[in-house]
Specification:
alpha+beta; 108 residues; three-stranded antiparallel β-sheet; 3 strands
Length: 108
């Protein structure tokens, strides 16, 4: 079944919606990261939720998972071109949040 979106924003939110995906995208913006490093880079996320979010992001084509067959096992996550393009689109939103951080924190 194909979902119909009302606009581009609706489509973008469907891909990256939720509390954690934007933070994961940001944590991956400088290059490949191992799971433990990623978990430390996203404070407050549980291991289970990080695994689920990474699986969803991999399925949607935002994240690439590279498994190195060595001892000990090594897995790295990185952004795909699709993920980098979404990260680029989110940067102005992050800037807006920084500029209004005091006001936003006062709301919560």
């Amino acid at each position: 079944m194909t979902r119909t979106f009302t606009c581009g924003l609706d489509a973008a939110i469907a891909v990256m919606g939720g509390k954690w995906k934007g933070l994961i995208l940001f944590a991956l913006h400088e290059g490949p990261v191992r799971f433990g490093e990623l978990r430390r880079a996203v404070p407050g996320i549980s291991e289970r939720v990080l695994i689920l979010q990474l699986r969803e992001m991999e399925a949607s084509g935002l994240v690439h998972r590279e498994v190195y067959h060595q001892v000990p096992p090594k897995v790295e996550y990185s952004l795909t071109d699709f993920g980098r393009s979404l990260n680029t689109a989110l940067m102005p939103l992050g800037t807006w949040g920084e500029e209004h951080l005091d006001r936003i924190e006062a709301l919560f």
